[in-house]
Design a protein that fits this description.
single chain, 23-stranded mixed beta sheet, 21-stranded parallel beta sheet, flat, disordered N terminus
């Protein structure tokens, strides 16, 4: 919002700054104050080009004196009573017509060096002008071709500015040289046509500028465009520039010195590099940012060769913009000497654009294809080959998408995706055969899918790094890389296999550092000393098949991890002769698989800190639960059948059987044992339940009893959850909430659920934040008023900002925040005793909360204030301020307690109206000290509108209003420490005490989606007592220039607000 309105703010600021400086007298009657304050709290498609056969224009190679030019019949010309000029040379009429449209040929007679006007001008249909001379001019254009005239250049066109301008459906053929020193070689507009068979080498920005519907410019096979000054890297902007529906085509060579080979902008505009075309701009300096560039719904097509020095071969920006590298197209920009310079890439789609490769990309640089920002899509079609020599074959970021149907065989990463919402897909026809460490890599929240073949040569077929990064090998996906791991996840990433992993390295899947792995497909490794799945400090579920061919192999190896086996779990060890298989039913969960032995290796190898979760049956005569690891039995599918169950350590039972139900007591009959012995206990793994056992005729049953929600959550949330529990399974939203609560295994997880069910980190802080921001705004205004000279008018500006680190408060999470704003205005003396003024401003605030869901609020506030100062007596001053602030608030948070990571957003309006009134008395103690005691009152009324979160089952926050009334008393002193004729230095200590007399912090009421009952959210509150201590330093030069520095700190207030101020004042 600030960016959108900053122009208005700047204009109003300029008006204020100039409003008080019109006095012509030398008497001081105005001032300008500028302060900076910092607060710190602690706590469209173009057709393929076909050569035009327009018989109305002569052949470009025909001599201008040849009378054999074939002119087609024309409609009868319109008679004109008087002759009119159609050709001027150096402003001298050289040819006239009596009727518009009659045929006229003219050969330029002499070299022309014109001053202040074009060297050559022509107009009218069937006017044919031929040049074999040198034309030069310092005017805007050296040659003007208008109203369907035809011009052929076989000489030289120079000029200080632009070379030629075509308008009004005119035509021109250049067979020679255009070498003006200005911005434009040839400008083509209003449906005109230009063909270059020669050389265009103007000194500055545009070789050809073509714009307007049906306007077209062609650089033919013999044409060369090399505009730009080799001694000035900021020239040579575009070889061909097409806009407003114009079309530019290159069949020859474009090698301007910098930036863009072909630039296209606007719907209907197109740039085409034909099959014979070569774009190699940027060679002079190594800049050459873009071979072809399009934005604003333009289209660029490459059928030839792009080999510019750096950056992007093709770049498309904006929704509706398209870049296509056709089957015959080759992009190989960049240089082997500097492969990383200027972010080199083959093609890029940005800001919602589409980039399609059907040909070859073999850049010497970082990226083959890139997709940036939401809505952007980079596609490598089935015929496309990406063979760049450096970092990434395809790259997606910031919400972009990249899809491969063809072949990627670059030197390093095949596909790379980063950022939430960003996606890369290797489709069923796609082959990734890069030589790098990663076939596909997902980081920082990116998502990657493989449906084709990955056969890169080094470490990882697919790799996920960082929380919320996800890699998926789909059912048809095959990973057969030569490196160490087929799929790997680290640092919170997630890896899911539904297809086939048969890499040649040591691990089929490698899951570590709090990551998640799931095998629903086949992992098939061949060789000795292999591990099907390696898990470290993470969790893994095997719902598929693991096959290892060789000796000394391990099916699943885990350290400090949780391994869950489903009934579909199969692990096979074989050497081609002997085959041993362990399935879910015969896995020894007691020993965590240690007793499932084979001469070919180990099915399981788990350390003492790992957990093997049973979701099936364990059968044996005597079953021992022992060791340091945690044994969890699935309450729904887990079963133990034995004569004797020995609990040497505790056994846990999870909550799966309690899901999708609203009962309070559950009986689990899954212990078919004669007796239970040992010191261990059967304990509920769910924090919401308690477990007990009862002997039955068939063994033992486990009774799981739900705790009352009001015992789990104090306050309204517990009551609402208890009241809505019965029948909750019939309501999808409520059932999902209760299922998540039942699966919480710790008090911490239930606390996270409280925060996210009630949005307490947001709703419990919003009132406090609004009052705190208002306090900061009021302090900024009062600081300016305290530093003004009450005897004159003035203009005042305070640029302020803040940072805070606010701690948790009762059940309300803390937050970090950053604020920036500006407040400016003017005070005008209207009588000798009275001054009035107005101030306006803007504040942007961002709040980041300290909860698992990373809640955030962004607030934009506009400020309008008025002030009155009046001298009641020579020593008594009364000051009153009224203020109105209006804000727009955007909220965002994630639900993590149910593992959904659902993003919820909200928006609400808020406003406040307030004011202050104070009396200050000035008591002169001596020539060096003045004391200024003050008393006053500060009022602040706030309102916040109701809002409902979107994006999922969030909260509905009720509207809120509050009123604050504070009494204030304080004193400040002006102490003159040094003074002579020109210099004065003052120290100004101050103290201000305020006391809150109202009750502005009431509970904020919310409801949960599909739940009945209001929930009051405790608000963060401020202390009633607030004591601020501060000191200012002021240096004054000749009573006309002052410099300020100040510091203030809250002593009693909970936020411990500290303020640092600096600035200057000029007297006029």
């Amino acid at each position: 919002m600030f960016q959108r309105n900053k122009k208005t703010l700047l204009i109003l600021t300029a008006m204020l700054l100039t409003s008080g400086v019109t006095a012509k007298s030398e008497e001081i009657n105005d001032e300008f104050l500028l302060l900076g304050t910092y607060f710190k709290n602690f706590s469209s498609k173009a057709d393929s080009y076909q050569k035009k056969n327009d018989d109305s224009e002569p052949d470009s190679n025909t001599d201008s004196d040849d009378e054999s030019d074939v002119i087609p019949p024309e409609p009868a010309p319109e008679p004109i009573s008087d002759p009119f000029p159609v050709v001027r040379q150096n402003n001298v009429v050289k040819a006239e017509k009596n009727m518009s449209g009659e045929i006229l040929k003219y050969n330029v007679s002499d070299d022309v060096n014109s001053l202040g006007q074009e060297a050559l001008w022509m107009t009218d249909k069937n006017t044919f002008v031929y040049n074999n001379k040198i034309l030069d001019s310092d005017s805007d254009y050296t040659v003007l071709v208008e109203n369907e005239a035809y011009f052929e250049n076989n000489g030289t066109i120079k000029g200080s500015n632009a070379g030629v301008k075509l308008s009004g459906i005119s035509k021109m053929i250049n067979n020679s040289v255009i070498e003006n020193s200005g911005d434009i070689g040839v400008e083509v507009s209003e449906g005109s046509y230009f063909e270059n068979n020669g050389i265009i080498k103007n000194g500055k920005n545009y070789g050809i500028l073509v714009y307007g519907k049906n306007s077209e410019a062609i650089n033919t096979k013999s044409g060369i465009i090399e505009n730009g000054d080799v001694n000035d890297k900021n020239t040579g902007l575009a070889g061909i520039y097409a806009g407003e529906g114009g079309t530019g085509r290159n069949m020859g060579i474009v090698k301007n010195t910098s930036y863009y080979g072909i630039y296209v902008t606007g719907a209907g505009s197109a740039g085409i590099n034909e099959s014979t075309g070569v774009i190699s701009n940027g060679a002079a300096y190594g800049y050459g940012y873009f071979g072809m560039y399009a934005d604003d719904s333009g289209m660029i097509i490459n059928q030839g060769l792009i080999m510019n020095a750096n950056c992007r071969g093709m770049y498309a920006k904006g929704i509706g913009t398209t870049a296509i590298n056709e089957i015959s197209g080759v992009i190989k920009n960049g240089s082997a000497e500097k492969p990383y310079v200027y972010d080199i890439g083959g093609m890029q789609a940005a800001s919602g654009a589409l980039a399609i490769n059907k040909g070859r990309i073999e850049t010497v640089g970082m990226y083959g294809m890139t997709s940036s920002q939401t809505g952007s899509h980079a596609v490598n079609e089935a015929t496309g080959v990406i063979a760049n020599t450096s970092l990434y074959g395809m790259y997606a970021e910031s919400g972009g998408k990249a899809t491969n149907y063809g072949e990627i065989k670059n030197d390093q990463d095949g596909m790379y995706v980063t950022g939430s919402g960003s996606t890369v897909i290797n489709e069923t026809t796609g082959v990734i055969a890069n030589d790098g460490y990663y076939g596909i890599r997902a980081v920082t929240g990116g998502t990657a899918y493989n449906k084709g073949i990955i056969q890169n040569t080094l470490s990882f077929g697919m790799y996920a790094n960082n929380k919320n990064s996800v890699i998926v090998n789909e059912t048809d996906g095959i990973i057969q890389n030569s490196g160490n791991s087929g799929m790997a996840a680290a640092n919170g990433g997630a890896a899911y296999n539904y297809g086939t992993i048969k890499n040649k390295g040591n691990y089929g899947m490698d899951i570590n550092s709090t990551s998640t792995g799931v095998n629903n497909g086949i992992i098939h490794l061949t060789g000795n000393n292999k591990t099907g799945v390696n898990v470290l400090n993470s969790s893994f579920i095997n719902n598929g098949t693991i096959i290892l061919e060789g000796k000394n192999n391990i099916g699943i190896r885990a350290a400090n991890s949780t391994i869950t086996l489903t009934p579909n779990s199969v692990i096979t060890l074989t050497d081609g002769i002997t085959t041993d298989t362990v399935v879910y039913e015969n896995t020894d969960f007691d020993s965590k698989g240690e007793k499932n032995t084979s001469t070919l290796g180990k099915f399981y190898s788990l350390d003492s800190k790992s957990t093997l979760v049973n979701s099936g049956s364990i059968v044996g005569k005597t079953i021992n639960i022992n060791g340091e690891s945690k044994f969890i039995m699935d309450s729904q599918t887990g079963k133990i059948q034995a004569d004797n169950l020995v609990l040497e350590t505790d056994m846990y039972i999870n909550s799966q059987a309690m899901l999708n139900s609203s009962k309070s007591i559950y009986e689990i009959n899954n212990l078919n044992v004669e007796k239970i012995t040992g010191d261990g206990k059967i304990i509920s793994d769910a924090e919401l339940f308690t477990a007990s056992t009862e002997k039955t005729d068939k063994g033992y049953k486990i009774v799981l009893t739900r705790k009352n929600f009001q015992d789990v959550y104090l306050g309204d949330l517990g009551k609402v959850l208890e009241d809505n529990y019965q029948g909750s399974e019939s309501n999808r939203t409520r059932n999902k909430v209760y299922n998540a609560l039942k699966q919480a295994s710790s008090a911490e997880q239930l606390e996270t659920a409280f925060d996210e069910l009630t949005a307490a980190p947001l709703t419990g802080n919003q009132v406090y934040q609004q009052y705190t921001q208002n306090k900061m705004i009021n302090n900024s205004l009062n600081t300016m008023l305290n530093k003004r000279d009450e005897n004159i008018s003035g203009t005042y500006v305070n640029v302020f900002g803040s940072n805070s680190n606010t701690n948790n408060y009762n059940n309300v999470k803390g937050y970090d925040s950053g604020t920036s704003g500006v407040l400016l205005g003017r005070m005008e003396k209207i009588t000798s005793k009275t001054a009035v003024g107005a101030f306006f401003g803007y504040v942007n605030a961002e709040y980041n909360y300290k909860d698992n869901g990373k809640s955030q609020q962004i607030t934009d506030t506009w400020i309008l204030s008025g002030a009155v100062e009046q001298k009641l007596t020579p020593n008594l001053k009364w000051t009153s301020v009224i203020s109105y602030n209006t804000s727009d608030n955007d909220t965002e948070r994630k639900l993590t307690y149910d593992n959904s990571n659902t993003t919820l957003t909200g928006n609400f309006r808020s406003w406040s109206a307030g004011g202050s009134s104070s009396l200050e008395y000035k008591q002169k103690i001596n020539n060096y000290i003045d004391l200024k005691p003050t008393i006053g009152i500060i009022l602040d009324y706030i309102e916040q509108s109701a809002y409902s979160e979107e994006g999922g089952a969030g909260v509905n926050a009720d509207s809120y209003n509050g009123f604050s009334a504070k009494a204030a008393a304080g004193v400040r002193a002006d102490f003159t420490a040094f003074q002579n004729n020109n210099h004065k230095f003052m120290i100004q200590p101050r103290i201000l005490y305020t006391y809150e007399m109202g009750d502005p912090y009431d509970s904020k009421q919310i409801t949960m989606t599909d739940f009945v009952g209001m929930i009051g959210i405790e608000n963060r509150t401020a202390e009633r007592n607030d004591l601020d201590l501060g000191v200012d330093l002021q240096y004054i030069y000749k009573d006309k220039l002052s410099f300020y520095a100040g510091y203030e700190s809250g002593v009693l207030s909970d936020d411990r607000l500290q303020t640092i101020t600096g600035g200057f004042k000029i007297m006029f």
